[in-house]
Amino acid sequence: xxxxxxxxxxxxxxxxxxxxxxxxxxxxxxxxxxxxxxxxxxxxxxxxxxxxxxxxxxxxxxxxxxxxxxxxxxxxxxxxxxxxxxxxxxxxxxxxxxxxxxxxxxxxxxxxxxxxxxxxxxxxxxxxxxxxxxxxxxxxxxxxxxxxxxxxxxxxxxxxxxxxxxxxxxxxxxx
Length: 175
What we know:
Blueprint: H1 14-19, E1 23-30, H2 35-47, E2 50-56, H3 65-71, H4 74-77, E3 80-83, H5 86-95, E4 98-103, E5 110-111, E6 122-127, H6 136-141, E7 144-147, H7 159-174
Parallel strand pairs: 1-2, 1-6, 2-3, 4-6, 4-7, 5-7
Helix pairs in contact: 2-3, 2-7
């Protein structure tokens, strides 16, 4: 087997990405601190043509050289907006017809492999702060919570890893 050259991957340009059909999925970052995590979420969102990323609270916004180290330019292709309050973002998304899920370990959460989405509907997923997770008031305002099953000794995954797992699973259902 031979590794493919970048030119053989036939990726679209940033301009073509902007015009391309997007997945009906918004990613909401609730007070995510790490610029590397934010950049990684941009890069994953580019890979699966996410509609938009909401950067809420203390979550940093592009342009930022540290974010660029992991985003590698995806911060220019993926649409984003800053919202001061994650709760405001949830209320806005719900008023626009989105079904909103927090990714959090809560009573009554739905395990990711059991989540059933409907094609033709719009969804948003909220990913929380690296230490505190998704704020309780945001969980309360969500339509439901998704949990990734874990079988080791740790109780959580890195937020950028969580984003990759959740986005990939939702992409498979919505594309």
